[in-house]
Amino acid sequence: MSDLVTATAVETAARIARGDVSAAEVATAHLDRITAVDERVHAFLHVDADGALAAAAAVDDRRARGEPLGPLAGVPLALKDVLVMRGVPTTCGSRILEGWRPPYDATVVTRLRHAGVVILGKTNMDEFAMGSSTEHSAFGPTHNPWDLDRIPGGSGGGSAAAVAAYEAPLAIGTDTGGSIRQPAALTGTVGAKPTYGGVSRYGLVALASSLDQAGPVARTVLDAALLHATIAGHDPKDATSIDAPVPPVVEAARRADVAGMRIGVVQELSGEGYAAGVEQRFTEAVDLLTELGAQVQEVSCPHFPYALAAYYLILPSECSSNLARFDAMRYGLRVGDDGTAGAEEVMARTRAAGFGAEAKRRIILGTYALSSGYYDAYYGQAQKVRTLVSRDFAAAFESVDVLVSPATPTTAFRIGERVEDPLAMYLNDICTIPSNLAGGPALSVPAGLSPDDGLPVGLQVMAPTLADDRMYGVAAALERALDDRRGGPLLQEAPAL
Amino acid sequence: MPTITRAEVAQLARLARLALSDDELDSLAAQLDVILGAVARVGEVTAADIPPTSHPVPLTNVLRRDEVLPSLPVEAVLGAAPAAEGGRFRVPRILDAEA
Amino acid sequence: MSTTTTYDDALTRYDPVLGLETHVELGTASKMFCGCPTTFGAAPNTQTCPVCLGLPGSLPVTNEAAIRYTVMIGLALHCSIAPWSRFARKNYFYPDMPKDYQISQYDEPLCVDGWLDTDVDGETYRVEIERVHLEEDTGKSLHVGGATGRIHGADHSLVDYNRAGIPLVEIVTRPVPGTRERVGAVAKAYVTELRELLRALGVSDVRMEEGSLRCDVNLSLSPRGSGVLGTRTESKNVNSLRSVERAVRHEVVRQAAVLDGGGRVTQETRHFHEETGTTTAGRSKEQAEDYRYFPEPDLVPLAPPPEWVESIRAALPELPAVRRRRLAESLGAAPSELAAMANAGVLDLVAATVAAGAPAAEARKWWLGELARRANETGSEPADLPLTPAQVARVVALVADGTLTDTLARQVLDGVLAGEGDPDAVVATRRLRVVSDDSALGAAVESAIAAHPDIAAKVRGGKVAAAGALVGAVMKATSGSADAARVRELLLERLAAG
Ligand SMILES: [Mg+2]
Ligand SMILES: [Zn+2]
Q1: Do B69 and C300 touch (CB under 8 A)?
Q2: Rounded to whole angstroms, how far apart are CA atoms A414 and A38?
Q3: Of A61, A348, A367, C16, which is the most exposed, with the fewest CB atoms less than 10 Å away?
């Protein structure tokens, strides 16, 4: 494997800036790597080789002209197929959008382009980001690079797998209930959900608008922080975007210091349903943080156990409305327009043919939860639970600076194992959902391999709104300590592909 | 707790414009029962005096100036259309007038 | 249905209860949630973008002017402005609605609890306003095949999304009871008054024929004197002032016939047909959509600061009702005269003419009479005539100082309207001065007496009133340029002399 593909984003950018290697060479090395392994991993739905090489050439030109390059100029990136990019197919993992080429760029994409980041292509995902395994992609599952028979998590399994398999040093994911953090945990990568409103949602195809947030996936905490800083910041095109300075995430990641930091372990996110190997690695990591000077204490968040239920009402409700526009009239699939069927029928036929089982399930569930007569009992109550979960966070953050928990209750399961059991699938997100409901930032950082099955375990750090830097500080400290102990990054232990 | 009938699922499917098969209606009715049984616990902890949260970040009055910006070129607008005619989107006949 | 029921007959047995929902497209430069222009009549789909096409990933951002205009409307209608207001999604599928939900307002509208007074036949009806809320307009469908332009029997439809996303204000009244036989007139007067108000605010061009003002008429009947509310229907597609009244009258008669026949009125949406003046059934309540409203998560709440609302209130232009009251005083006009001027579209013009120095009665006489007639002849509005109130005031002054007679004044107006310049210039070039030179008039007086010896005899016999006919003859002979008073004097002198 070329060291051009194993290098971190920071190293790659430095080499390009020094002229040790061209951005074009870096892009080519990654495209070659994709060619070599993606048939087995299936992280990508679309590889935009021409676009990537053109973007790389532009960076090389800028360097040749002596123009200043940003900290990620020339670094390749894999983009989750839920963000639109002008002229490049965007499917959201769904048949209903097959062939659609958006006429505009997401704000995240605009910022990546300005930063000279080289977008390699679009990554696989559960259909419209609904799922925790990437098995609900209409285009087949993505495989976990640690064990190709296992799921890489979801919905952003493609982005996490691409990074873990050295197909890209960086990726963009989106996180509605854990879709960045849970795949990061299961693939031994770093994944962060920024504060809601910290990264523009303009051009992010909405699943649940009040929960969705795009964020970075990387192999190191510092790389993730650099990508975070590149895409974050106020966007007037997104009314829910926060008009405040981007938290100093890169500085925090470089400092990697937890001395004196108060860390709360969430009592409710442990116990029944948590694999022993996951809890063991989590506990060891927390002990390590104590060794590094953090003050660790147990904290109770009594309403977290209700978060999952609230989430599976709020998400389907918003998604049933967000997915209405896929109606065969203006773009995407159209089925059954035989000249006799009316518009209403063509809509219904197209949507039945174009959406997969999970999408239909959630659309029906959301339609039910919003119906007159049920709204108060379901959607209304779920919104109140949301308040209670936020209050739990607020109370906890009065006594601690960050909260920690396992990122997932178990390691990666086998492809097909839970696909017929939606409730079991939903439990994957039990640790990650509270942050989406409350809006605060959270990330997953590798905590080692489970002694049960040798698969990666992730530790989740949750911080208060707009204190994204804190979680990077904790994660970077843990990463450094674990790497020192291990003698190198966790991904070195992944089997060769 | 809730028992969702097949007829109810069919009505929801109509509202959601999903032409579901009989098999899908049956399996969804069963699954919805299980899922709703699980999520109904949101009712256990909430009290009347708890305000609902619909936005995680409490912003208000986010407005833009009344300024005209360029529209898309019409080719880009119609480029993705399943069918177009005379600069317009061609859609199947509409059977019912709406509000 | 009984064919014998008439409007008057129906009212002997039922009390009509009226309600109106009016949609107004705001005249903002850009759309409600995106920067696309709102110009009427552009080539199809040329004023669209990812946001107003509802493309996946796009997000709405609220237009400040649309909020401001809505608050202006609310204040002008004496509403309270909500300290906290939100947009909601109204979910239903329709091809001309790009997201298959409409961003609207549901239980948290911007303005609530107001009123608008309307005058009909000298009586004032206070129409209570329940709410004023803001939403986005839909695209427009063209139905192809079958009967031209009609939805039924069409082969397919063609959709233009230029209109999609234009800010639309919905003004909803409470039920208006007690209008009796004036129910149709009150409906029409309300919409007329509302239109004038919106025009005065400058928030919309309020053109019903272009659809920037659209009306839904709600009507129910209750048994006469019972006070029991009946089942209402909602007639849509009522797109002219005249039709507002027609739709009301039609529904009164139709519902009365249903009730008379022992039937029940169905709660439903009905479609008004301009050509026939009738309504036909649309969607019934049982078939009604469940709109599954919920707070729009892509937008944050509105919390209009009180000082901002007060600054808008302070900057409101004079409202039509206030203005009418003020003008009534300054013009010394009775309500009926004021109404006549308003209806003829000359109220502003009269006021401006008075401001330019003309006596109110003269200004009113010219604008309501001669000038309104001229506008009418050319199919235009008096305001569109190519002459200014100052020019009219000058003509009035020239008549008052004896330079012109009314007949000559009309010729001066001809000249001004023909672009020959100011009244003084027309007087000069057309030589339109009154002839008061006795020697010039003497010959005309002599001929008039000679031509009408019988009348001359009567005058000599003491019937002075008969002199009018001789004056007329002199005026005719001089093409109206003579000073009629002087002619009369000369005639009487001449006849008295023998
Ligand atoms: Mg409406
Ligand atoms: Zn637009």
Answers
A1: no
A2: 19
A3: A61
